[in-house]
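Usage

Read records sequentially. Each one opens with the input sequence:
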Amino acid sequence: MKKMFIVSLVKNGILGGILYVMSDELIYCTNKITVSKKIQRLHLPYSEIERITKERLHTILVSLKNNEEYKFFVFSRKRLLECVERNMIKDEDL
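and closes with the structure output:
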């Protein structure tokens, strides 16, 4: 199952893109060529996600086990979190 959400990555400014909720990972994609290749197509496997928390306004914070964090601005935050919860192996931290 794949769902997509229009989001902005908040990292050194706001970077518009799409967040795909896959059965085994989250994938963030942007068409901006001025950012690193890692950010252009960012893979966040559920097995590497420590927790996902709600932040202010319409943002979520994805914290990885290696202490990296990615903040996303999304209007349909509730739908996104419900979709992620259905797909994640370990969903008690949502």
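Summary fields computed downstream for this record:
- The chain has a mean pLDDT of 89.
- The chain has two helices and seven strands.
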